[in-house]
Amino acid sequence: MRRVITVNLAGSAYQLDEDAYERLRAYIALTESRLGASPERVQVLADLERSVADQLVAIRAQTNPQTNDGVVSDATMLQVLTNVGGVQGASSDPFDTHASEANEPLPSRANDRANDGGWEAQESEYTRLPVFVLCGFLGWFGVHRMYVGKIGTGLLQLITIGGLGIWTLYDLILILLASFTDSDGRTIIRWA
């Protein structure tokens, strides 16, 4: 069974499969975090939403209507987000070392192993389900952090017993919201 999620982009409804929705949601969340408290934040997000909608319309026009069931696939969303690119500008977060690197576009901040530096480079090879299960059952010991390569903070969680549970709860929420990252700073998006 395929789950389909309907979203409103720039006043038009689009049906996205679950993976496409997760990719778009993570992209927007990353953009929001990059914009921080910028006074243009609302306008930039609206423009970005409009650009995504325009790209979806353009790609739909190029595809064969007989093979198109109206649901945006993950591959199509990847193409759309790659075409749209990222937001230029620095983050208000002084600890975000990637945001200040020569106004680098949002999707291309991933590690050196990425092929083309595009949006797909932001996505981790890890999946959320095992990370979530490890965090839920062994989060007190930092096992989920060690699993994704964050050995130092995993050991710190082990020593502090998961930050007395608060750190573990925080990580569980980040995993559920697809905001948890691996040791290379790539977002863990997919469930399986």
Order of helices and strands: EEHHEHHHHHH
List low-pLDDT spans. 90-121
Radius of gyration: 18 Å
Any idea how many domains?
Answer: 2
Structural topology:
Layout: E1 4-9, E2 12-17, H1 18-35, H2 41-62, E3 71-72, H3 74-84, H4 128-138, H5 143-147, H6 151-159, H7 161-164, H8 166-176
Helix pairs in contact: 1-3, 2-3, 4-8
Write structural notes for this entry:
With 192 residues, the chain is mainly alpha-helical. The chain folds into 2 domains: 4-122, no CATH class; 128-176, no CATH class. 47% of the residues lie in helices and 7% in strands. The protein has helices at residues 18-35, 41-62, 74-84, 128-138, 143-147, 151-159, 161-164, 166-176; strands at residues 4-9, 12-17, 71-72. A 3-stranded mixed beta sheet has the order 1-2-3. It is elongated.
Structure keywords:
three-stranded mixed β-sheet; 2 domains; 192 residues; mainly alpha; elongated
Give a quick precis of the structure.
This protein is mostly helical and 192 residues long. Helix content is 47%, strand content 7%. It folds into 2 domains: 4-122, no CATH class; 128-176, no CATH class.
